[in-house]
Design a protein that fits this description.
It contains no helices and 17 strands. It has 235 residues and is mainly β. The N terminus and C terminus are likely disordered. InterPro entries: Osmotin/thaumatin-like_sf, Thaumatin, Thaumatin_CS.
Length: 235
Amino acid sequence: MAITSWCYLLLLVFSLGDLANATVFTLQNLCSYTIWPGTLSGNGAATLGDGGFVLSPGSSIQLQAPPSWSGRFWARTGCKFDDSGAGKCVTGDCGGILKCTGGGAPPVTLAEFTIAANHNDKDFYDVSLVDGYNIGLGVKALGGSGDCQYAGVRRILMGTAQQNYRWLIRVRLSPARVLVKRLMHRSFVAPATIRHRSLAHRPSTRRCSRMHARRPTVMLMMMQQVLALAPGRIT
């Protein structure tokens, strides 16, 4: 089935001039529909974006992270929340609330990042299946002289897949600590119908150093949304 639409979510990360090692994430929704990113911070750090938020088409939001910040991002789609922030998402739900205080409900694929304490140290990222699998996710770094390689799913073979749309996240890292994510995903059937799961790479990456990023570094994140997790789950 042909792809019917494209959707882009851009996440830019850069350092603040006056705060030597502070990092700012800017997320911009270039989709034609609303999305609900979820975030979870580690090491006792403040949760970025209160843990979750709504991004209407064409809107953006900035999130500031301190040095040594670590955390995760994941996709939430098909969400419905009331004025109090209570509700539910089709994928990536975090306890039925808009502002997550924990991770997304398994099965959910994660993108995890650790920001260095200073610009001379290394950043780390990985694609993790520790909480299961709900969407195809990958990160790829291009350019620069660091060893920032692709991690994640290369391709999924789907029996009777129904493909509706895709979105792409591109991540770019420069000496100015600029990071751009563009998410790409394509709807498909439940995980039970997916074959050849061995095509997924190990959920880890090699080390990547900002110090070696002399030229812009690009990372591609490819995500695929599940159309049906279980009978009666999708509305």
